Amino acid sequence: MTMATRNDDQFYFTGRFVVLQAGSTRFRVPTDGLIRESQFFSDMFSLPIPASGTTVEGVSDDKPIMLPESISAESFRSLLRLLYPSASLGCSSGEDHAVELSESEWISVLELSTMWYFLRYRKMAISHLNGLLTPIEKVCLGREYKVTFWVEQGYHSLVKRKETISNDEALELMTGSESDHPLTALALLRIREKRAKYFAGRAGWSTPPGNTVERDVERAFGEELSNIRKIEEPYGIAEAPTSDRARDEIDYSTYCYRY
User: Fold this and answer.
1) What's the CATH fold of domain 17-44+57-127?
2) What InterPro entries does this protein's entry cite (predicted)?
3) CATH code 3.30.710.10 region(s) in the chain
4) What is the model's pTM?
5) pLDDT tens, position by position, for the chain (259 residues)?
């Protein structure tokens, strides 16, 4: 009688190996992880294989798939550590929670997962980075990698914090978005001034401006936020953690502004 056979759950690897090159560094990895996690690579590897005699990119060290010049070996390695944790951790496939990355490595993961639609790893990167970024970093990275709630949080924090916007921060706010860059800091300072007048007792409002910050930010940056959100939709709109939303409701009426 023939014995029934089955494939091992962990150590029966499907797909083939592919060689990719970032800068001067070659990487040879199984295609299964790339195909499983990214629609971009799934589509790439589903293309028909050329007739025999044609050298296919990625099948050998002599003709690797060349990644864009902007992608460094270090950045690509950060993504591969999540895709193939067993290579460096000795754990089974899928144990991505065991991988520890630095802030800069998570930013690399966010960049590449956005570029290639690794949706699960993009979500992980946003989650890990959320508590590490400054308000300016949230605005700049949120603009670049289409994380709407980061941009909103960054604007809210810059309006509500004690310290004013520095010259260096104003310059950073001028880049990385399709909005009217030179006016970003000015618009935020106008909202801060509105709040400062209230707390100085000169505005004559019946409700604290803390209740109007979201509305003022939406009024000033609504078009930019809407454009970012539209581009973000195919990735799945990321939402602020509950703890962030609660912190955003803090009463800032005791803050003294520094100009």
Assistant:
1) Potassium Channel Kv1.1; Chain A (3.30.710)
2) SKP1/BTB/POZ_sf
3) 17-44+57-127
4) 0.82
5) 677 888 777 666 667 899 999 999 999 999 989 999 999 999 998 877 766 656 788 988 999 999 999 999 999 999 999 998 876 555 544 444 578 999 999 999 999 999 999 999 999 999 999 999 999 999 999 999 999 999 999 999 999 998 999 999 999 998 655 555 668 999 999 999 888 777 666 555 545 555 678 899 999 999 999 999 999 999 999 998 877 765 554 444 433 334 3
Tell me how far the alpha carbon of residue 57 is from its chain's centroid.
Answer: 29
Residue-by-residue DSSP string for the chain = -PPP----TTT---S-EEEEEETTEEEEEEHHHHHHH-HHHHHHHTSPPPPTTSPPTTSBTTBPEEPPTT--HHHHHHHHHHH-THHHH---TT-GGG----HHHHHHHHHHHHHHT-HHHHHHHHHHHTTT--HHHHHHHHHHHT-HHHHHHHHHHHHHSSB---HHHHHHTTSSSSS-GGGHHHHHHHHHHHHHHHHTT-S--SS-GGGTHHHHHHHHHHHHHHHHHHHHGGG------HHHHHHTT---TT---B-
CA-based Rg of the chain, rounded to a whole angstrom? Answer: 24
